[in-house]
Fold this protein.
Amino acid sequence: MGSSQFFGAAEIGYFVAMMVYIGYFVFRSASAGKAATVVTSVSFASQTAAILLRWFESYQMGIGRAPLTNLYESLEFFIWCLILGYLIIEFKYKTRSFGAFITPIAGLTLGFIDLTAMKTTIEPLVPALQSNWLLAHVTMAFISYSAFGLSFAAAMMYLILKTDDRKGSAYWFWTITAGIFVSVLVAMLADYLNYHILHTPVADAKDALLGSTFRNKSSLVRLLSYLAAAAFTGIVWRYGGVLKRTFTYFGVSAELLDQLNYNLIALGFPIFTLGGLIFGAVWADQAWGVYWSWDPKETWSLITWLSYAFYLHARFIKGWRGTKVAVVAVVAFVTVVFTYLGVNIFLSGLHSYGEMP
């Protein structure tokens, strides 16, 4: 078996784990929880083998590079870091309910990989990537991204657990965020069914992303998709208290979630500062002769850094705790998503090697 087969097995496993974790969370089944942990662990082992095999295969091809140099490889590495962090949290804090919020992030990332038909072949490095800074810069950036992803999940769980008033701004915030998140996940599953199972032809791979729903050529389909998403968000708003009662059943404390949110950001922020910004600037100077050029990727990386810097400032200087900083953590992770995926899809610049095919 080659790396592609191991990656494929891991992707299927993560999707299965996502469904089982959600089932465990909804139906409170201990056996489902154990099964979800086993499936996730086996999938993680398969992905680990895939990354190592891909690295070895690059040497067999005479290229010899770390599997972190294109959009596909970096997203796979992000998922690997995310799942590793989650498994550590699960075994340390003895709670599986976190998995219902983490595995959907991995599911969305995997769906993005499959639907956009990005290149998965091993290719020689472009000149800008032929540097000893590659491994440190990319590795540290994605370790920090995964820490921020885990903090996003902790923050969402905190908001669900601590907000009671349906008319309150925090309650509206998390229900709308959850509604959008789940709607996009369902839309990507519809895309997978439409373009991969039913093999509906599409002119451009980019058009397949949400092409069955929110970006469909038919205005009626787009309208119905938005109405369905709005209706689902309304259901989440109406029955959000059920999620809180479920958390209470699992014994997840708000204090733990608040502290976990802070710990993850406190871990990710210095790693992102050093690896994502400082190492990136040094590498940019070697590759392009300038430390900072206000390239879209650099600009949005700075926005991400400022967002998490604001979180830490608000917590330490302003004394913010609980709901306020949880909202900041959720918004900050949105900037992470746009920094990596949004810039690659909608903008262009010196980091064009990371664009979609």
Observations:
- Residues 3-354 form one domain.
- The chain has one domain: 3-354.
